[in-house]
Amino acid sequence: MPNSGLAVFGGVARDDQGRWLGGFYERFGMRATSSLIAELWAIHRGLILAKKYDLKMVIIEIDSSEVLKWLCLTGNVSESHPDRTVIEKNARVLYPNLGLY
């Protein structure tokens, strides 16, 4: 299948009993993007949803070891990394006391 350049991401939030709390999805439209960027934005939107519901503990399930590596490198992502902005947006939510601006 050819790459159309279209990307959609989404996620769900459930409580500790598996009951639906909310969900989201968003389209990137025609912007050129990668599956890694879609994954990063899905995490970001999911973290915002977790804050909305005042969840104290969350489990984030992702299938990209590369994205996980980027998030664990927070504070050490190269300034020239093309996805640094969204990585740091996630980092501010995951690690609020890290001192990122």
TrEMBL record:
Residues 3-83 form the RNase H type-1 domain. GO terms for molecular function: nucleic acid binding; RNA-DNA hybrid ribonuclease activity. It comes from the Eukaryota. InterPro entries: RNase_H-like, RNase_H-like_dom_plant, RNaseH-like_sf, RNaseH_domain, RNaseH_sf. This is RNase H type-1 domain-containing protein.
